[in-house]
Every structure is written in structure tokens, then in C-alpha cells.
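Schema walk-through. Below, the input block comes first and the output block second. Nothing else is stored per chain. Lengths vary across the set, and this one has 244 residues.
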Amino acid sequence: MCGRFVVARSMGELLTIFEADAIVGEMPGISYNVAPTQPIAILVDRALEKDSDGLPVGDLRREFHAARWGLVPRWSKGPGEGAPLINGRIETILEKPSFKEAVVRRRCVIPASGYYEWHVAADGSKQPFYIHAGDDGVFALAGLYEWWLDPTKSKDDPSRWLLSATTLTKHTAPELAHIHDRNPVLLTPETFDAWIDPHVDGDAELLAALADGSDQVASEALFHKVGADVGKVRINESSLITAI
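--- output ---
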């Protein structure tokens, strides 16, 4: 699973890279150690209009929003219920109550310069790796998002709505199998457009295309060993991604 990632680009840079129309609200800054439950930037294509059934119609607006990393389903009692859902397995998300409704239309892209993964040796020792898109690159991670309504807050309290998100993972690409048995679902330019478009139904065919495309991106990913400090949430500095 992917439990830590890096965003080494400013929101201004991400706005340009992903050709977004707007940044909505207060966004997290550069981080070399993004951890579960922290705010992350997610990219969505939002329909400006919906039909009588609530389905998107017409033009789309590409926006960055800040979300909690750890999906909180609409029917959940709240963000403190159970472990945060930071990852969803692409092989089973259409079957899981926590994810299956979001797959249909509440899909997003999560920018990441790279992510950390721990290789566990036969003796139980752990070595973290930084897997990344290069100094000038940015991964587009496939994600899902949800809005959760806090029933304890008044209708005029804007904080009563919580936006949360999860990343998707898959069986590892061959080039990364020596590090870990899973990796995040990495989008290609083609799968990016289909995944983020709310006019496109999220189904098994779309997920299969994502999995195939992810392996193509992963085959070109760079990686190196890094120090164990990446496991400490309180440490967040550029030295974390330095090769050892």
C-alpha cells in the first residue's frame, strides 16, 4: 500500500501542469511526507449543470480542492470511525460499499512527485524506497472522493461538509515488484481524461484500462533507497527524498 507520498510542486505549478481552471479554497503546500488524514490536493472535473436525476451535463470546470486523505463514506458515522481508508484496491472497489458508489462519478486525480514504499526483507527488516517521476515529472494518481455531512453541525456552518479522498492501488508492475507487491494506480494522458470525466461511467472496463496504463507509467518510474525518517510524520523536509 502507499502510505506516504511527496508533493514537491507549488499549487501554482500544479495549476499549470494540469491545466486547471481554478483553485478552490485553502490548499496544502509543498510536502515531502504527506501522511494519512492530512489535507491533500485533488483535481476534479466539475459539471456546471446537472439534469433532473443529478447527472452531469454540459461543460466541465477543472478545479483543485483540498481533501482529507482517508475516504469517509457518506453513510459513515464520521472520520474517527475505524482506520482511515487511504487506499482502495482497484480489483475490488466495485464490490466494496465504501468505494463502489464513488467509482461511478466521484473520481479524482491526486498529484504526486513520488511516493514512499517499504521493502520488507526475509529477516523482517524494512528499507524505504522513494519511487518518483523524476525531477521534472509529476505522477497523476487515480483517486476517489466523497462528501460527508456532519449531522452535529448547523446548516449555516460551512465546515459541516467534509471532503475526503483515497488513492487506488493495484498489483505491482514487474519493474517495482522487488520493492513491494502493490503500487498506486498511475494515470496515462489517455486514462487521465477518461478517469476524471464525470460524463464517463466508472465500470470494470474503465478500471481495466487504468490498470494496463498504470503498468506503462510504472515501467518508467525512477526509484532509490532513502532513510528511515520518512516513517516519522513530524519530519517533513527535502532531505527525506535524498538517496542513501
